[in-house]
From TrEMBL:
GO cellular component: cytoplasm
Localization: Cytoplasm
Keyword Cell cycle attributed: yes
Gene3D superfamilies: P-loop containing nucleotide triphosphate hydrolases
Official protein name in the record: Septin
GO biological-process terms attached to the record: cell division
Gene Ontology molecular function: GTP binding
Coiled coil ranges: 378-405
Species, as recorded: Papilio machaon (Old World swallowtail butterfly)
Domain Septin-type G: 73-346
Length: 412
């Protein structure tokens, strides 16, 4: 019986090499599917070759893989707020993150305030937005600038930043580094009172102690108490003071050349707004049919999100939307690396000192051993000299005795 088989020849070009695939097509359904697949592959490869494209590998999905892994792990951000009482620090934090972190706070009485010193209060909250989780830590410094003598107010804040660096360095140097927790301070909001004509001495001293350890963002508090010209003059004086005292605050990174014009314009506006003159409010009211956060005054309402009233929106955009990751990168690559280099240098110097001490001790022990051997040799020589002296003494006595005997014989 005659065997009726059909042969289909498929010509596939891969990297300019022709491969002839011969398929035997009987009534098998799998062969038909394979022929269709090979035909589709041939078409795709020919289209790619015609367009001058290479074969698809798959590493273009790496950003998606990193995104999924980062979202699953979550993000950490630590924000320190420094300023004297009554400047609206708590209100600003609640307005920035749309929460109430200070609902259980107790206000100290007069007697406690008389003896109050700068302390550290940590508050942590979990925020989730569109599936992204943020572990936010707010480090407050109640009591800063409230005492009559504020010369030591900076010590607690500086020590806290160093302690977090030291803890991270210890965890990083340990054996189990899989579940490391980043509690380093990534940004410090420093509040300047609106009634100050420039930076005060306590402000200068505080920022000089912190500017090489943490990203400082200067904020003019309660800007609604100043006119537009007063805000402009105060900003200029603060910038001049920062330059005169050589205080390095957070510097915005330069935009890449491939960024769109809208992002570049936003970056220019953020840079021009430094230091940020903000107004904060935790009261929601209705204006023109829309709900806004604002403050009610006899002459009108201050909308904190209105750029003509406050730089609150620009501060929130910079701090959360555009530069949060850069703040963390600068903390890791600049401030923490400086601290780490100092720690390694101190460890090396300590190791050298210990090595020199051990060397001196070992040399001292050797000298002691040599000295003991020398003493032993000297004692042996002294003993020999004594024996020789004794022998000489005995010989002299014998000679004297013999001389007397000889003399007596002669006399006789």
């Amino acid at each position: 019986m005659e065997n009726s088989e059909h042969y289909a020849i498929v010509d596939i070009s891969i990297n300019d090499k022709h491969i002839n695939i011969i398929n035997t097509d009987s009534d098998n359904e799998s062969n038909k599917k394979e022929n269709k697949k090979n035909s589709a592959l041939t078409t795709v490869i020919k289209l790619q070759r015609d367009r001058g494209e290479r074969d698809y590998i798959g590493f273009a999905t790496l950003p998606e893989q990193v995104h999924r892994k980062s979202v699953k792990r979550g993000f950490d951000f630590t924000l320190m707020v420094v300023g004297e009482s009554g400047l609206g620090k708590s209100t600003l934090i609640n307005s920035l993150f749309l929460g109430d972190l200070y609902r259980n706070r107790t206000i100290p009485d007069v007697h406690d305030r008389l003896e109050k010193t700068t302390t550290i209060e940590k508050k942590t909250m979990e925020i989730e937005e569109r599936g992204v989780r943020l572990r936010l830590t707010i480090v407050d410094t109640p009591g800063f600038g409230d005492a009559i003598n504020c010369e030591d107010s900076w010590r607690v804040c500086s020590a806290y930043v160093d302690d977090q660096f030291r803890q991270y360095f210890t965890d990083e140097s340990g054996l189990n580094r899989r579940h490391m927790q980043d509690n380093r301070v990534h940004c410090c909001l420093y509040f300047v009172p609106p009634w100050a004509h420039s930076l005060r001495q306590v402000d200068v001293e505080m920022m000089r102690r912190l500017h090489r350890k943490v990203n400082i963002v200067v904020v003019i508090a309660k800007a609604d108490s100043l006119t537009v010209m007063e805000v402009k003059k105060l900003k200029a004086r603060i910038l001049q003071d920062l330059e005169d005292y050589q205080i390095q605050v957070y510097q915005f990174p330069e935009c890449d050349s491939d960024e769109d014009e809208e992002f570049k314009q936003q970056d220019r506006e953020l840079k021009a707004a430094v230091p940020f003159a903000v107004v904060a409010a935790d009261t929601v009211m209705e204006i023109g049919g829309r709900r806004v956060r604002g403050r009610q005054y006899p002459w009108g309402i201050v909308d904190v999100e209105n750029p003509r009233h406050s730089d609150f929106t620009k501060l929130r955009t910079m701090l959360i939307s555009t530069h949060m990751q850069d703040l963390k990168d600068v903390t890791q690559d600049v401030h923490y690396e400086n601290f780490r280099a100092q720690c390694i240098s101190q460890i090396s110097q300590h190791a050298l000192r210990e090595r020199g001490k051990l060397k001196r001790d070992s040399m001292g022990n050797n000298n002691e051993e040599v000295f003991t051997d020398t003493d032993r040799l000297l004692l042996q020589k002294d003993e020999e000299i004594r024996r020789m002296q004794d022998m000489l003494t005995q010989m002299q006595e014998k000679l004297k005795a013999s001389d007397k005997k000889h003399d007596s014989i002669i006399d006789v």
